[in-house]
Input
Amino acid sequence: MLASNSTRSHLTKAFLALDEGKHLQYDFVKTIPITAFRIVPKGTEGNMMVDGEKVPYGRKQKTFS
Output
């Protein structure tokens, strides 16, 4: 999801609409199709959460087919 040049009120609307999937209805929200992603933490220890669940800290990578 990309929301460039958005105001605080735009971002608030989008985040409040996430739960019901309605954030994509706003013209200031753009999606970018991807086939893979990688998350690389800057530090060596900390907390990581994915969808509200704690996951082991470290590099994460996923490829979609």
